[in-house]
Amino acid sequence: MKGITGFIVGAVIAVLAIVGYTSLFTVDEAEQVMVLQFGQYKRTVQEPGLNWKLPWQDVQRYEKRVLNLDPPEARMILADQKPLLIDSFARYRITDPLEFFNSVRTEAGVVQRLGPIINASLRSSLGKVTLTSVLSADRDAIIGEVLKATNEQAQRFGIDVLDIRIRRADLPVETSQAVYQRMRTEREREAAEFRAQGFEQSELIKSTADREATVIMAEATRESEILRGQGDAEKTRILNDAYGQDADFFKFFRTMQAYEQSLTNNKTYMVISPEGDFFEFLRGATPE
Fold it and tell me: Which terminus of the chain is less hemmed in, N or C, by CB atoms within 10 Å?
């Protein structure tokens, strides 16, 4: 009897242990749990701690924290017909586990369902703005519009999208090359225009300098001629004064100058009568 009793007690304890193991579960503070019975929703547990369920019931755990979503990169056309490759990301939180379970089931399903919605909202909003707006402070307003449009559709998944950001907005390779070529052509045109303006300015400066140089040279020539005439007049006046003071000496001095200028060159030949006036002061001179 004691053996049978011990066996029964052990069996009861084992059954209670199995029931306790399959009936009790814990909820972490970073998660929320749905209790399911044969795939049907029973209740949601969001408070952390120890909880219970029936042994044949299951639990489905979802994150309570903010989750990240990276939609695939998409090509979009702006209002100015410029294509952009948009790489975006979003942050969301599961607010209704039942709606989430009925619509997307798992976090992996969010990528397939919410990713296209985000890209569609981006495409709709970016299609109404230009590249300048995307690259300016207007981007926040654009993102706000995208976030509002996305949340309107994300509510049916039991999701609240908290933020959407554009990580990178690049021009396609062919567009970048076209933009670069257009910029290069524009810069070359501006350089040629500046070069032509510089050449025109250079020619203007040169012509002005040449004209001013001609005027200065003419003025200098006129001044030099005036000064030369004044010098010649002064020279004549001085000579006249000297001649008036001593005519004989002046005549002698000028004759000596003539001798010096005409007889210093050994190759000079003169055929003049000794009795002429030129040799007046040489007649009667005794050679040393």
Answer: C
